[in-house]
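quick one
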Amino acid sequence: MAKPKLALYWAAACGGCDVAVLDTNEKILEIAAFGDIVFWPIALDFKYHHVRAMEDKSIDLCLFNGAIRSTEQEEIAKLLRAKSKVLVAFGACACFGGIPGLANFTTREEILQRVYKEAPSNSNPEGTLPQVKTKVPEGELDLPDLFESVQTLEQVVPVEYFIPGCPPPSDLIVKVVDLYVTGKMPPVGSIVASDKTCCDECDRVKEEKKVARFYRPHEITTDPKKCLLEQGIICCGPATRGGCGMRCIKANMPCRGCFGPPAGVADQGAKMLSAIASIYQGDTPEAVNKMLDEVVDPAGTFYRFGLPDSMLKRKKVAKVQGK
Ligand code: SF4
Ligand code: SF4
Ligand code: SF4
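structure w/ iron/sulfur cluster:
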C-alpha cells in the first residue's frame, strides 16, 4: 500500500513551528516513517511547480504554519487546500494570526514607511519601496504583494483541524500524527488541545485575592508556588486554552495566550480584560485609570497571538486597500 503523503508549509512565520516538528526528537523518525514528505520548503528542495503538478487531494495531511499576509502566501494556501485531503492550521500564527497579526495594529503604508525609509539601519536615499514587478536582465519578475491586513489560514481557505501554540508542543504534534495514522482524528473543526483553560490546568495556589497593583515580570520577585495573576503579574491563563503543559508557568513566566481563547470564548482580549477587572482592587474611575497605567501595552498583551482572529480583527483604517 502506498504511504500517506505529508506536506508542511510556512507562510508568515518565524520558522519556530518547523523547528518544533524537528524537536520531536526520536519521534521525528516516526513522523518520517508515517508517510512520504512531498513538500517542506524549510527542509527539502521541492518547488511550487512540483505541488502544482500533483493531483487534487493527493496530499493526505498538510501541516500549514504561519499567517497569511502576502499574495504568495494566499496563493500557496489555496494551492495546498486543493491538493490536500486534510489541512491543519499549525501553530498560533496559522490558527489566530499570531505575532505577525500584531501588524494589524498598524497599516501596510506605515509598515513600509518604517521598514524601508525610517528605520535607523536603512540606507535607502531614494526611498524605494518594494515593487510587485522588477526588471532583471533575464526578464520581468513578479514579486509578492503585501496585504493591508494579516489573516488567519481559515479566513482564506477551509481548514479541518487546528493545533495551537507558539510553537505547538512536540507531544501535540506526535499526538496528531498518531491520531491520523490510527484513524482516530476528532470531528472536523476540532482544536487539538485541551477544552479547559490554562488556569484550570495550573497547580499554583489561588487564594481568591484582589490585586492592589500590576507589575511587569522583571519588577518583582514572585512566589513560584502562587498564582502569578494574584501576585500582580498579568497572566493570560484565565483567557487561554490549556494543553501546552504549562510551559511558561513552569518557567515562572506568565502565560501570554499562545493557545488562543478557550472553548466558548469569542474574544480572548475581552475575556482577559474582564478577568483583570474582576481581580483588581478598587472600582472608582481613579482606580481604573491607575490600573490602565500599570498595564503596559494592553492591546499587545491581550491580543498578542490573536488579533486577526479577534472581534476587533485590526486597527480601523480610513481606506482599506486590498485585504
Ligand atoms: S506560531 Fe510561533 S513559532 Fe510558529 S511560526 Fe508563529 S511565531 Fe513562529
Ligand atoms: S493566572 Fe496564571 S498563574 Fe494564575 S492560575 Fe491562571 S495560569 Fe496559573
Ligand atoms: S503558558 Fe500560555 S503562552 Fe505559555 S505556552 Fe502555554 S498557552 Fe502558550
